[in-house]
Write a structure and sequence with these properties.
The structure holds two protein chains of two kinds. By secondary structure, chain A is an alpha+beta fold. Chain A contains six helices and ten strands; from the N terminus they run H-H-H-H-E-H-E-H-E-E-E-E-E-E-E-E. In chain A, a hairpin with a 2-residue loop joins strand 4 and strand 5. Chain B is 70% helix and 0% strand. The chains are: A alpha+beta, B mainly alpha.
């Protein structure tokens, strides 16, 4: 029996053959006793499998699972940490303090360096807890899935990278010649392998499944948009411009 | 556009709504348990899989991508959990159901024959390698399309078809050998 006949037989079993394919199968089977036997056996197998009865989940399983579900939606623990860049444009302590202060502003409490719940941060900035996220650049192809997003609020603004990449990816962020400053970094689930500043732009080397937020400085005024270029294996694979969703009080001039 | 009927429940669950999560659990508890049972043939292991699947899902809801169907995502977790258990098994302990559950309200000969057939199918399923077993479970018990199976298993559709053809061929041969598959 040839491969095409076999494919059509399985198509019949899975009920995916269209009328034309079904006609072709009929024609082929007219001259193939082996094909007819194969189809009959596979239909019988399908019938046997369809006759299998369902299993009943054990009593109390649902209640047992719900008892283990915490009262609040889980969020991955995140720490505010100083940036590790190739450039000492910000001292580590200054970056840490600035970030903590910025996040504390969001949280509405006194600045302190502390463990943060990204869900709270998300309330105004990161999209995990609010569906009202900023503009996003989807990065989906055969080797990666995820997005780069912009967020703003409460006088802060941020770039979020949430990307699962099978191979190393370089993300270049440019603001049309304007200087991008980074006040802090919030690793939600990992961090970039490398982060550098060059000619006012930000370059991230991203590996694997990571999610993190770059909190940008507003000292020099925020750029109205950022151009992102994504490279894999030295090739440009995605390019796009994202514009901030809101005016940032005290930010843009 | 994603028209997944689970989307609203997933969004609410992500924001900590336990009632919404329980609704998802109610919707998928039985299908996931059945997937695990068909993969593992072991009630305790299947129970563990269901627990693990839903606890993992709850923990990772923030990573869920609304571009995909929720059921694809959760079935994927279930299949992977089941395969992990299979890979960790030092030996297979078959579910010894014998002729328990024979329906004595029908013709006794037919009932016994049906029970024998069921046991034969179960035994044949357990002889399949996990990757082949998974495609049979998803196609014949969950009624997934090739595309859905490819998404759940993380392999191309071509691979799904190839595994499905081979798995059916093996099942058919084994059932024939046991004189249960004759048409």
């Amino acid at each position: 029996m040839d491969d095409r006949t076999l494919e059509l037989i399985h198509g019949d079993i899975d009920r995916v053959n269209d009328a034309e394919a079904q006609r072709e199968l009929t024609l082929r089977l007219e001259s193939s006793a082996e094909g007819r036997r194969e189809l009959a056996r596979l239909r019988h197998l399908r019938q046997i499998l369809a006759g299998e009865t369902d299993f009943e989940p054990p009593a109390g399983l649902r209640a047992s699972i719900m008892a283990q579900i915490p009262a609040h939606a889980p969020r991955p623990a995140a720490r505010v940490i100083p940036l590790r860049t190739r450039r000492t444009w910000f001292g580590a302590a200054a970056a840490l303090a600035a970030t903590a202060a910025g996040v504390a502003l969001l949280l509405g409490r006194a600045p302190e360096i502390t463990e943060l719940d990204p869900a709270v941060l998300a309330g105004t900035m990161v999209r995990s807890a609010t569906e009202a996220s900023g503009p996003s650049l989807r990065l989906d192809d055969a080797s990666m899935t995820g997005a780069i997003s912009l967020h703003s609020g409460e006088g802060r603004y941020a770039i979020e990278v949430d990307l699962d990449a099978a191979r190393p990816v370089v993300i270049q962020a440019d603001a049309g010649g304007a200087q991008l400053e980074i006040e802090g970094f919030v690793p939600v689930a990992g961090e970039p392998a490398e982060l550098s500043i060059k000619d006012g732009g930000i370059r991230l080397l991203h590996r694997g499944n990571q999610r993190y937020v770059l909190v940008l400085g507003t000292g020099g005024g925020a750029p109205s948009s950022i151009d992102f270029s994504v490279y894999a294996d030295g090739q440009l694979v995605r390019q796009g411009r994202l514009t901030w969703p809101d005016e940032i009080p005290g930010g843009r001039e | 556009m994603n028209k997944d009927p689970d989307t609203a429940l997933v969004r609410a669950s992500r924001n900590g709504d336990r009632v919404a999560f329980e609704a998802l659990l109610t919707r998928y508890e039985r299908p996931i348990y059945n997937v695990a049972m068909r993969m593992l043939r072991h009630p305790e292991d299947a129970r563990d899989v269901v627990q693990s699947v839903f606890l993992t899902a709850f923990e990772k809801l923030h990573q869920y991508d609304f571009e995909h169907k929720f059921y694809s995502w959760i079935y994927r977790i279930a299949i992977n959990e089941s395969i992990d258990i299979l890979n960790g098994r030092t030996r297979y302990a078959p579910l010894d159901e014998g002729l328990e559950g024979v329906d004595d309200s029908s013709n006794p000969h037919e009932a016994v024959r049906a029970a024998q057939l069921g046991a034969g199918v179960q035994a044949a399923m357990m002889r399949l390698a996990p990757d082949y077993r998974a495609v049979i479970v998803l196609r014949h018990f969950v009624d997934c399309s090739y595309r859905e199976m490819a998404e759940i298993l993380g392999v191309p559709e071509k691979t799904v078809k190839s595994r499905l053809f081979t798995a059916r061929q093996l099942l058919k041969e084994w059932l024939d050998a046991d004189d249960m598959g004759a048409a």
